[in-house]
């Protein structure tokens, strides 16, 4: 889409009440007047900054004037709008159309949420399953020489429980299992 068509599409959004205040419009007009390439002449800038006319009228006239001048002038208006009112620039209807993703493209943000939408119960179930399989594999392994039931349970967790605490727990569990 050309910038003139985009500006025509965004005109109602920009001229609706309380979208742009007078200060922002003045900054945009001054930027279009002072920044190279000069889009508005001094006379045109004075016309669009005239406080006697209503803001809606000045803004509508400015947008129509830029559309008549061509695509480069409209592009510079969008650049000035982005610099002076970035939030409004991001909310423009033409920007939302440009941001719509290609249906064949994978949206990584959406994919990230799709993988993480299961919740804590699902995580605990998976973790319990993995821990159970690890415990089963450890206890049924014929190469491990484990004496006593507590050693089977706590013997594989030196990382989780400190060595000193693990030894005390194993002694306590062995003592309980004898009684």
UniProtKB/TrEMBL annotation:
Membrane-spanning residues: 120-138
UniProt entry keywords in alphabetical sequence: Disulfide bond, Endoplasmic reticulum, Membrane, Mitochondrion, Transmembrane, Transmembrane helix
The CARD domain, residue ranges: 38-96
Membrane topology: Single-pass membrane protein
Predominant cellular place of this UniProt entry's protein: endoplasmic reticulum
Keyword Endoplasmic reticulum part of the UniProt annotation: yes
Gene Ontology biological process: regulation of apoptotic process
GO cellular component terms given for this protein: endoplasmic reticulum membrane; mitochondrial membrane
Record localization: Endoplasmic reticulum membrane; Mitochondrion membrane
Subunit structure: Associates with BCL10 by CARD-CARD interaction.
Name of the protein this chain belongs to: Caspase recruitment domain-containing protein 19
Organism listed in the record: Irena cyanogastra
Gene designation: Card19
């Amino acid at each position: 889409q050309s910038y003139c068509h985009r500006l025509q599409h965004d005109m109602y959004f920009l001229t609706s009440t309380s979208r742009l205040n007078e200060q922002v419009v003045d900054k945009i007009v001054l930027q279009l007047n002072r920044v190279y390439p000069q889009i508005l002449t001094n006379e045109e800038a004075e016309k669009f900054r005239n406080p006697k006319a209503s803001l809606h009228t000045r803004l509508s006239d400015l947008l129509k004037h830029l559309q008549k001048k061509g695509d480069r002038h409209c592009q510079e208006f969008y650049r000035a709008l982005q610099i002076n009112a970035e939030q409004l620039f991001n909310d423009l209807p033409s920007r939302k159309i440009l941001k719509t993703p290609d249906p064949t493209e994978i949206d990584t943000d959406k994919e990230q949420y799709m993988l993480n939408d299961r919740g804590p119960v699902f995580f605990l179930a998976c973790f319990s399953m993995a821990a159970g399989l690890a415990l089963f594999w450890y206890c049924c392994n014929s190469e491990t020489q484990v004496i006593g039931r507590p050693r089977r349970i706590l013997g594989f967790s030196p990382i989780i429980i400190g060595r000193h605490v693990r030894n005390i727990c194993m002694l306590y569990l062995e003592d309980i299992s004898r009684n």
